[in-house]
Design brief:
It comes from Massilia aerilata. InterPro entries: FecR (IPR006860). This is FecR domain-containing protein. The structure is a single chain. By secondary structure, this protein is mainly beta. It folds into two domains: about 230 residues, Jelly Rolls (Sandwich); about 170 residues, Porin. Helix content is about 5%, strand content about 45%. The chain contains five helices and 28 strands. The strands form three sheets. It has a 17-stranded mixed β-sheet that branches. An eight-stranded antiparallel beta barrel has the order 21-22-23-24-25-26-27-28. The chain has a three-stranded antiparallel β-sheet with strand order 18-20-19. The longest helix has 10 residues. The protein is globular and about 70 Å long. The protein starts with a helix and ends with a strand.
């Protein structure tokens, strides 16, 4: 086995190189460096503030946004026979964007983009994908994709797109739509994309290169993929959309004297008396916005139980913060924003929530079991801008203790993404509020063992002093 691993490592080829890094990002467990190569099979990770742009060997683009884990499993370009090129991406969690390179465009039948629950193939494409361990969603910027959930002949180890009766296509002409696959599903669902699209879950940086999609029927239109080999700064905008050069100066032309204009006689201005001014109350005085409260709940059917709310309708009154599995976290619109204290810490008591345990016997057969939440702990340290939490989750005679930690943003958002493969570790997104004298909520997923995972939501109130 050791000799096999050494041989595989020796055969791993360069898949591309890093052209931009921001925030916390790593390649193969080491800090990502601008200009460094990316080899096949290396784990690519970004933190809560991390972005990683990779230019593939055939001038394609692979972008990881914050809290993302992925790898380029294979990138074998056959220049003599382009149809034999083999490319495979794996997105484990988070949001990533893939723009096909020159070789992929000539070997679309050999391109595969895997998530934990689905396979994506291309028709010569630029697209973004969100995934956690149970749900994947894809939106197309230009071109078209084909998507299928794992099951039957479509398996993670395969190559190329899964074409079959259960697969579904999505093109850039279907503006505002996305495809979604949940664990256990084979046929993707077509959804309205706005609040759930990858760009809403994890927005791109302002300097992220966009697709040139003239005639693509709804794709973004902006500068195409730039040559960023020498780019060493965060200002990608100058490379993506450079300003036109200034015209050369005209030399050896003597100035032409211009006579001063004639000075006309000053006009006689008759000023009429000013009309009486009726004071107008400021517009702001007529608009009273409520304090911003936390809105949370389940937006999909689980174990036959109807959802708590309609997410697109909830988006009309509230701001979507995050979705995680079957749960969504929003913040009501208003003026009372959370203000981060400079120091001190507070504790919270668990006051409510909901969770389900999912048991995956096969890629297409899942059991969903309601679970209860107990023994909750949530502590926020404002001086360190961090938090720690733990909860117990119980179903029948079995109990699990889940724990997590992470960062607190200036706007009160909690982020504790630790990787979907770690056992009993909470991958969560949360929010602090002054609601009810101090409250918090977070939505989470956690891997319990090889076959089981948990997904849920918790609501907390500040511990009285």
């Amino acid at each position: 086995m050791a000799l096999t691993c050494v041989f595989h490592a020796a055969q791993a080829a360069d898949a591309g190189k890093i052209i931009f890094v921001a925030g916390k990002a790593s390649v193969g467990g080491q800090p990502a460096l601008d200009g460094a190569p990316v080899r096949e099979g290396q784990m690519l990770s970004t933190g809560a503030d991390g972005f990683l742009y990779i230019k593939t060997v055939d001038s394609g683009l692979f972008i990881l946004r914050p809290n993302t884990q992925a790898r380029i499993a294979a990138y074998q370009v056959d220049e003599k026979n382009p149809a034999k090129t083999q490319v495979k991406f794996e997105l484990l969690s988070g949001v990533a964007r893939s723009k096909s390179g020159n070789a992929v465009k000539q070997a679309r039948q050999n391109f595969r983009f895997n998530t934990p629950v689905a396979a994506i193939g291309v028709r010569g494409t630029d697209f973004t994908v969100f995934t956690d361990n149970d749900t994947s969603r894809v939106a197309v910027i230009s071109g078209a994709i084909v998507m299928s959930g794992f099951g039957g002949a479509c398996m993670p180890g395969g190559a190329g797109p899964c074409d079959g009766d259960a697969s579904r296509e999505l093109s850039a002409s279907q503006r505002g739509l996305l495809l979604q696959v949940q664990r256990g599903q084979v046929t993707p669902q077509l959804l309205q994309g706005s609040p759930l699209s990858p760009d809403q879950v994890s927005p791109p940086r302002a300097d992220e290169p966009l697709a040139r999609a003239a005639g693509a029927g709804g794709g973004a239109s902006a500068a195409g993929l730039p040559n960023l080999d020498a780019q060493k700064t965060v200002d990608l905008v100058k490379v993506v959309d450079p300003a036109p050069p200034s015209p050369p100066p005209v030399k050896d032309v003597p100035p032409v004297p211009v006579p001063p204009p004639a000075q006309p006689a000053p006009p006689v201005v008759v000023v009429p008396p000013a009309p009486p001014v009726t004071p107008v109350p400021p517009i702001e005085a007529a608009i009273v916005l409520p304090a911003r409260d936390i809105v949370w709940g389940r937006w999909q059917v689980v174990a036959g139980r109807p959802p708590d709310f309609n997410l697109p309708q909830a988006m009309d009154q509230s701001e979507l913060i995050k979705t995680n599995g079957n749960y969504a976290l929003l913040r009501s619109r208003g003026t009372d924003d959370f203000v981060m204290p400079n120091n001190g810490s507070i504790g919270f008591q668990l006051k409510g929530g909901e969770a389900f345990i999912y048991t995956d016997y096969t890629p297409t057969y899942r059991i969903e079991t309601p679970a209860s939440l107990t023994n909750g702990m949530l502590t926020v340290d404002f001086g360190k801008q961090s938090f720690e939490t733990s909860i117990g989750i119980t179903s029948g005679a079995e109990s699990f203790k889940l724990s997590g930690s992470g960062t607190v943003g200036a706007d009160g958002q909690l982020n504790g993404s630790m990787g979907s493969s770690q056992i009993n570790v909470l991958n969560l997104n949360g929010l602090l509020s002054r609601q009810n004298g101090g409250s918090a909520a977070y939505i989470f997923t956690s891997r319990l063992d090889e076959k089981r995972s948990a997904n849920g939501v918790t609501y907390w109130q500040q511990t009285p002093h």
